[in-house]
Automatic annotation (TrEMBL), chain A:
<feature type="transmembrane region" description="Helical">
    <location>
        <begin position="152"/>
        <end position="180"/>
    </location>
</feature>
<protein>
    <submittedName>
        <fullName>ABC transporter permease</fullName>
    </submittedName>
</protein>
<feature type="transmembrane region" description="Helical">
    <location>
        <begin position="68"/>
        <end position="89"/>
    </location>
</feature>
<feature type="transmembrane region" description="Helical">
    <location>
        <begin position="36"/>
        <end position="56"/>
    </location>
</feature>
<feature type="transmembrane region" description="Helical">
    <location>
        <begin position="128"/>
        <end position="146"/>
    </location>
</feature>
<feature type="transmembrane region" description="Helical">
    <location>
        <begin position="244"/>
        <end position="265"/>
    </location>
</feature>
<dbReference type="Pfam" id="PF06182">
    <property type="entry name" value="ABC2_membrane_6"/>
</dbReference>
TrEMBL record, chain B:
<keyword id="KW-1133">Transmembrane helix</keyword>
<feature type="transmembrane region" description="Helical">
    <location>
        <begin position="160"/>
        <end position="182"/>
    </location>
</feature>
<feature type="transmembrane region" description="Helical">
    <location>
        <begin position="194"/>
        <end position="213"/>
    </location>
</feature>
<feature type="transmembrane region" description="Helical">
    <location>
        <begin position="247"/>
        <end position="268"/>
    </location>
</feature>
<feature type="transmembrane region" description="Helical">
    <location>
        <begin position="135"/>
        <end position="154"/>
    </location>
</feature>
<keyword id="KW-0812">Transmembrane</keyword>
<keyword id="KW-0472">Membrane</keyword>
Automatic annotation (TrEMBL), chain C:
<keyword id="KW-0067">ATP-binding</keyword>
<dbReference type="GO" id="GO:0005524">
    <property type="term" value="F:ATP binding"/>
</dbReference>
<dbReference type="InterPro" id="IPR050763">
    <property type="entry name" value="ABC_transporter_ATP-binding"/>
</dbReference>
<dbReference type="InterPro" id="IPR003439">
    <property type="entry name" value="ABC_transporter-like_ATP-bd"/>
</dbReference>
<dbReference type="InterPro" id="IPR027417">
    <property type="entry name" value="P-loop_NTPase"/>
</dbReference>
<keyword id="KW-0046">Antibiotic resistance</keyword>
<feature type="domain" description="ABC transporter">
    <location>
        <begin position="16"/>
        <end position="256"/>
    </location>
</feature>
Length: 273, 284, 357
């Protein structure tokens, strides 16, 4: 993409956008506090939901609470961080609808980085920090037998998850280039994907599990890496090394998302709005 | 549905028939307005259905892990709870209603005062029209999907269906009232975003969307039920439908809803009166 | 930067077309696709320093053309180059060399004061600090920004915001400035401030200016060259005078009389258009007679209290153009030299001391 070509010389420009965003948000002091609190609240609720479920049952899909919490931690650390970095791309719909995307296109910067930096929801930082905290606590209480390989896996997996969820955010948001009223459809795959990865995959079944886990790749974000970390065999029968493929899944998904985005921008240019 | 609300709306006494006609006309316009958002309707129904699968599988796994029955729900009851809940979500419309807050922010709200209909009544009538449209378009897709892929329960008591219908109507009114109050904070605050976020955050979990509130210990569930309107938004109609409790408690829960509907509408009227005084005295 | 030869066109469009596919409801659920030509074969050559008024009725294709020139939309067919660059393929490079003010689509940071937006734009456009400061100083003085530089944009009036937008579009010293409806919705004072500023900017001859507008006063004040577009085609390209000549619009002489006349005078080559004010005011059209001939003729025949010469009303002409059923092919684009004169036209010019008693 030609737009990315002189990336480095544009760094100050992108930093300027980021500064502008930070200043803009600071200008709403009261809302900023509310946002900060409520964003941690959202992740607290996600975790609380899992804990409530384990009040009713001792095991979920063949996993006990500490084991399930490893999946919760991997999922929420990756999702919350991706949401912080890329999640605001779902504002694209508004840009397309109101024509503000025109203003993005007449600036001498890449369209996607602009969109991300101009609205970067710094308030979601707290959420990402909390998500990572959940992961750390979950890993600590799971009493894993740590090996260097597992440490690497525990670091690599959330990073791959961030890329993966980020790609899902971009791909689903790009939908609005073709379908402005796509409304909540994106949420089915972003927040839906988060929900899917929060629980052991064994709770789902049939074609639904196949589509989400293998078709779209959500199975490799938290479930299989968690199995590898816990040293448990997959009840569904895949070998242990599958726990390591998260990066290999995330990168092609990111490439697909980038292509969808580019096609979307081209489509926007050819239809206008 | 109109008759349900006519009993709790401000009494107009002498001119009940023309008043009712006006109300019905506004309701009709609400129905028509939302029927123009066709694509958003399709998108929303799709998303509700995907979340239906996700939540249904998880709750079924909970029941399986708990040895078949979870917090008094059989697997079929849980599946019904989830799928009907996904359908009702759009009917009661927990989230994404900012009409009033937007009108307050732009100042258009002043023109509401020029109409011969009380603003709360007018917004309520519009919302009932919206709910009616959602009932046709957003309620059925998830429920039918659920029927297709999972075992659901059918009501066994004669009174369950009428009670459920009444309960859904009350849930719409209560939810409208809550949204109205949340939006109305925009009269006094710079923007209603903070209140709206807190509402979005708490309403989902406290209404029983993420898990049935019976999963909570009694010391949390009972006060929640009686002292807050949240369970009346989703949990009550769903518990009524799946017959989680005996006939007495089933009817009693709807009774609690009636109380909440009255309280909330009174609160709306009060808030509106104060807001109008503020508008008139301070000029917005 | 690729330097263009000084006489090379800054904008060049050849047979530029843009078609949109619209879905039309046919029956209750069925929708059929229809292709609509928003821009239907536009040829345009703009040279450095020109000020072009681009006008047309709603939906004529003005904004679509501007969007194709700025890299926002890609043409369906035909070719367009701005500063020698194809706009869509070289969007980012082109963006550094043009300035854009798109009516409601703000370039400014909504929650920040103008001062901060300007500072951020310096980095976004990578403008050397000294250049930036010099341009900002000029804009501050000429657009009178100092009173509201520190107020968040969201709290500015439309007029103040538009002055901010103009500054934002100019801080990187663009070669071409595209303005889509720059005066729409502005109060009279702001409108005049914006016009005066643009006139000044155009007078230096460094910046090429392309503006679309509904307000013909903008055109009369600013643009020597007028491009009228209708149904996606150019129906006139030339000076305002050429437009008047072509559509037979004429100056008018308005005479206020001392006494009402029973029998209005007959002047050769200047038919009487109307009689107003109970016969105290006569309006003549200058057909073959010049305005001074009409005035002289009148002064001989009647006692004049006052006299005024009204310039032809461009709105009438344009309204007539829009109503024309089929767009006629455009006459040859006027070369720059041809339209250089006759810039400022005031709508009424009182003739002083023209009262004879």
């Amino acid at each position: 993409m030609a737009e990315w070509a002189h990336g480095r010389s544009r760094l100050p420009a992108y930093l300027a956008l980021l500064r502008g965003q930070a200043r803009s948000q600071a200008s709403y002091r009261t809302s900023f506090v509310v946002d900060l609190v409520s964003n941690v609240g959202a992740t607290v609720l996600d975790v609380l939901t899992v804990l409530v479920l384990f009040r009713v049952t001792r095991e979920l899909g063949g996993f006990d609470r500490t084991e399930a919490m490893v999946m919760v931690g991997l999922s929420s650390a990756a999702f919350a961080t991706a949401d912080l970095a890329v999640g605001n791309v779902d504002g694209l719909r508004q840009y397309v609808r109101t024509g503000l995307f025109d203003a993005v296109l007449v600036r001498p910067l890449g369209a996607l980085p602009q969109l991300l930096l101009m609205d970067l929801p710094l308030r979601k930082t707290s959420r990402a920090v909390f998500g990572i905290g959940v992961l750390v606590v979950a890993l600590a209480t799971a009493e894993l037998s740590w090996t260097p390989a597992r440490v690497a896996l525990a670091v690599l997996t959330p990073l791959a998850g961030v890329v993966f969820f980020g790609a899902i955010f971009v791909a689903t948001a790009s939908l609005s280039f073709w379908w402005i009223d796509s409304g909540e459809v994106g949420a089915a795959f972003t927040y839906g994907g988060r929900d899917f990865t929060t629980y052991p995959m064994t709770v789902y079944s049939g074609w639904f599990r196949a589509v989400f886990a293998y078709g779209m790749g959500f199975g490799f974000v938290a479930y299989y890496p968690a199995l590898a970390l816990l040293g448990r065999a997959d009840p569904l029968g895949l070998p242990q090394w599958v726990g390591w493929v998260a990066p290999a899944v995330a990168l092609p998904v990111a490439a697909v998302a980038a292509t969808v985005w580019r096609l979307g921008v081209r489509h926007y240019r050819s239809t206008g709005s | 549905m109109g008759s349900v609300t006519a009993t709790v709306a401000p009494p107009i006494g002498r001119n009940i028939i023309p008043w009712f006609r006006t109300f019905a006309a506004i309701t009709g316009s609400g129905f028509r307005r939302y029927s123009t958002y066709r694509q958003a309707t399709v998108a929303g129904a799709f998303t509700n259905t995907v979340f239906g699968f996700l939540r249904c599988y998880v709750l079924l796994a909970v029941a399986a892990g708990a040895g078949g029955v979870a917090a008094g729900y059989s697997p079929a009851q849980l599946a019904t709870f989830v799928w009907v809940g996904q359908g009702l979500l759009a009917v009661v419309l927990l989230w994404r209603w900012t009409d009033l807050a937007d009108r307050i922010r732009t100042g258009e709200v002043a023109s509401d005062l020029l109409r011969p209909v009380h603003p709360v009544v007018s917004y309520l009538a519009t919302d009932l029209g919206r709910a009616g449209y959602a009932l046709l378009t957003r309620f059925l897709p998830p429920v039918l999907t659920g029927l297709l892929f999972f075992d659901l329960v059918l009501p066994s008591r004669w009174q369950t269906v009428p009670l459920f219908v009444l309960s859904v109507g009350l849930a719409v009114v209560i939810c409208f009232g809550c949204r109205f109050l949340v939006n109305a904070t925009a009269y006094w605050l710079y923007d209603a975003r903070g209140a709206m976020i807190l509402w979005t955050l708490s309403s989902g979990v406290l209404a029983g969307l993420y898990f049935p509130l019976r999963f909570l210990p009694d010391w949390a569930a009972v006060p929640l039920w009686l002292a807050t309107p949240f369970p009346s938004l989703l949990q009550t109609p769903l518990d009524v439908l799946v017959e989680r409790d005996g006939a007495g408690i089933q009817a009693g829960m709807v009774g609690v809803q009636v109380l909440w509907a009255g309280l909330i509408l009174l609160a709306c009227r009060r808030v509106q009166r104060r807001a109008e005084r503020k508008l008139v005295v301070q000029g917005g | 930067m690729t330097a263009l030869p000084p006489d090379a066109p800054v904008i060049e469009a050849r047979d530029l077309r843009k078609e949109f596919v619209v879905r039309v409801r046919a029956g209750r659920f069925r929708r059929t696709k229809r292709v609509v030509g928003a821009v239907d074969g536009i040829d345009l050559t703009v040279r450095r320093g020109e000020m072009i008024g681009y006008i047309g009725p709603n939906g004529a294709g003005k904004s679509t053309t501007l969007k194709m020139m700025t890299g926002v939309l890609s043409p369906s067919s035909g070719e367009v180059r701005v500063c020698g660059l194809p706009p869509v393929a070289q969007r980012v490079r082109l963006a550094l060399r043009i300035g854009v003010v798109f009516g409601q689509r703000s370039q400014l940071w909504w929650d920040l004061p103008l001062r901060d937006s300007f500072d951020l734009l310096r980095h976004v456009y990578r403008v050397p600090a000294a250049e930036h400061a010099a341009r900002l100083r000029r804009c501050r003085a000429e657009l009178d920004l100092d009173g509201f530089l520190d107020i968040p944009v969201r709290q500015l009036s439309l007029g103040q915001r538009m002055r901010g937008e103009l500054t934002a579009a100019l801080l990187h010293g663009p070669e071409v400035l595209f303005l889509d409806e720059p005066t729409i919705g502005l109060d009279l004072v702001s409108r005049q401030a914006v016009r005066a500023f643009l006139a000044e900017l155009g007078a230096t001859g460094d910046t090429t200016l392309v503006l679309t507008t509904h307000d013909l006063a903008d055109i009369e004040r600013l643009c020597r060259r007028l491009v009228v577009i209708d149904h996606g085609r150019v129906v006139h390209d030339g000076s305002i005078e050429a437009l008047h000549a072509r559509y037979g619009s004429r100056r008018r002489v308005v005479a206020d009389l001392e006494e009402p006349l029973a029998e209005p005078p007959v002047l050769p080559g200047a038919p009487l258009l109307r009689v107003e004010a109970d016969g105290r005011r006569l309006v003549f059209a200058c057909e073959s007679a010049t305005a001074s001939e009409v005035v002289a003729g009148l002064a001989r025949l009647v006692a004049l209290r006052d006299i005024a010469i009204e310039e032809p009303d461009i709105e009438d002409v344009v309204a007539r153009l829009y109503r024309a059923p089929a767009p006629t092919p455009a006459p040859t684009p006027a070369p720059a030299g041809d339209v250089a004169q006759g810039c400022s036209i005031t709508s009424t010019a009182k003739v002083p001391g023209a009262s004879a008693s």
